[in-house]
Amino acid sequence: MSGAHLEPLVKSRTALPRAPKNWHSWVLIAIFVGLIAALVWSWLFIEMTLSTVFGGFSDIWNLIQYMFPPMFDNFPEALRATIETIWMALIGTTMAVVLSVPLAFMAARNTSPHPAAMAISRGIISLARAVPALVLAAIFASSVGIGPLPGVLALGLHSIGMIGKLFAEAIENTEATSRDAVLSTGSGKWQTVLATIVPQIMPSSIGTSLYRLDINLRESAVLGFVGAGGVGFLIQSELRGLDYQRAISAVSVIFVAITLIELISVRLRASIIGDHLSAQPKQTSRSRARVARDQKKIYMAISSRQLTPPWTQERVLRATVGGTYLLMMIVALATIDMPLLSAYKLGDDLVLSIGRLFPPDFTTARSELIKGMLETTAIGFVATALGLLIAIPLGILTARNIIIRRLVATLTRGMLLFIRGIPELIFAVIFVAAMGLGPVPGTLALAIATATFMAKLIGDALEEVQQAPRDGVSAVGASRLQEFISAVVPQALPNLVSQMLYMLDVNLRSSTVLGIVGGGGIGFLLISAIRGFETETVGAIVFLIFVIVYAIELLGSFVRRIVE
């Protein structure tokens, strides 16, 4: 065989992926051992015992029984507060999307105009993600007063952290061939961006925005605990009066709203982005005729060189969604009690209030700061570990490509959706009321929220694995368990590691607010400092939260680069 014929073989052989470097394995082992050590220390630090955990379940069950049946005589007020919560989430998410678009383009490596602009944009995105929305709401409420306005501002600014990050990653992952082709025609940089990058990132961006709306709806439900409007204020008032039956009625109203909106959001994401595992609709004569009409419209548009796309079913769906969204935004802005003009005038006050956080004061409450941050960190580690232990079997049960009986996956997803509709702060309130003050009830509440969220992420990661390796293993006679261990787990492992570290990041932020309801951590000191106008102490707490969360984020990025 000639050299010319051998060359493709040589190239294909050299193109094979290289084995991981030895030091990568040792680094991963060191990180794993470090995380285990941190978990053991955290478990001992918060004095978490199995007897404490299981012993408190009877008290929790007694309290839950006391809450039922709910008393719905406050239903009109609960419904009004729930609608206000929905409008807060919608306006805050829209605000975040608008602000995240330019930040994402400046933060992405392939579109940033300058390295300094990229560094500044990424710093803003990281800072927004590091400070919990509840903390921002408390700061803004002390500046602009109670009501939905501080809640909207908090949700909008905090959401930039997630939306901006995912938008920037989507921009960096765009295909470069089409971009280079358009540039070669003499088009400008931003003309090229609009023509090539925007169409590629649009589906994932819509999915990200809808997903963030789900999260913001849950977060807005508890912002009222610090005076930021919505149904949280009503729930807090009922709980302070020990009127648990009316409190659970308000929780049930927001729960139904969150569940319905999440179901709608899931269907929209599947329609816009696509879901290769969703059940295929039954092919009827009407559906086949509809597909044929759409194909005919596309063919006629191409043949006649029509400049605008035809009105296919997909385009009608997107137009309907867009029109409904605009209508909801108009209704939200027209009905919500939020003085936008006043917010504009109070811009200087907001900047001044944030400026008072600096320089942070680490000396006045040094011992309380150290104890609170250590307790917050310990809660985050233990809650993540407990949630992961519960989430792994539940996540496997939700994977439709793993579980033979799709009914099992559907029922498991429904159960997780049911539990996920209740914000973790509500769980914390229930556990604290039953078990008393301290980090243990806060940890259990956060673990439940973590388990439901992680189970969904694990199920999604398992569903995204390629089928070819599974078929290869199955062809040699492997059992389903062997197939799962040898072909599914290695594919999903990098994503699962990334998601675990992401949940640790989220839980470290979430654990900072549990102290507001007596669930341990830095939250009690934080809310006390805000109410006492000890702004320098608030600045110190915010700075410490940022440092810890940012360190975990850097660790997660480093691990992802190694395992991928």
Report the strand count: 0
What is the fold named in CATH at topology level of the domain at 23-55 and 365-564? MetI-like fold
- Number of DSSP helices? 24
The CATH C-level class name of the domain at 23-55 and 365-564 = Mainly Alpha
Gap between N and C termini, in Å?
Answer: 37 Å
**Radius of gyration from the alpha-carbon trace, in angstroms:** 26 Å
Describe this structure in words.
There is one protein chain. The protein has 564 residues and is mostly helical. The chain is built from 24 helices and no strands. The radius of gyration is 26 Å and the shape is globular.
Care to give the gist of this entry?
This protein is mainly alpha-helical and 564 residues long. Helix content is 78%, strand content 0%.
Write the layout of secondary structure elements.
Elements: H1 3-14, H2 22-45, H3 50-55, H4 57-67, H5 75-107, H6 115-130, H7 133-144, H8 148-172, H9 176-184, H10 189-220, H11 231-240, H12 244-272, H13 285-303, H14 313-335, H15 340-345, H16 347-355, H17 366-398, H18 406-420, H19 424-435, H20 439-463, H21 467-475, H22 480-510, H23 523-531, H24 535-563
Helix pairs in contact: 2-17, 4-19, 5-6, 5-8, 5-10, 5-11, 5-12, 5-14, 6-8, 7-8, 7-16, 7-23, 8-10, 9-10, 10-12, 11-12, 17-20, 17-22, 18-20, 19-20, 20-22, 21-22, 22-24
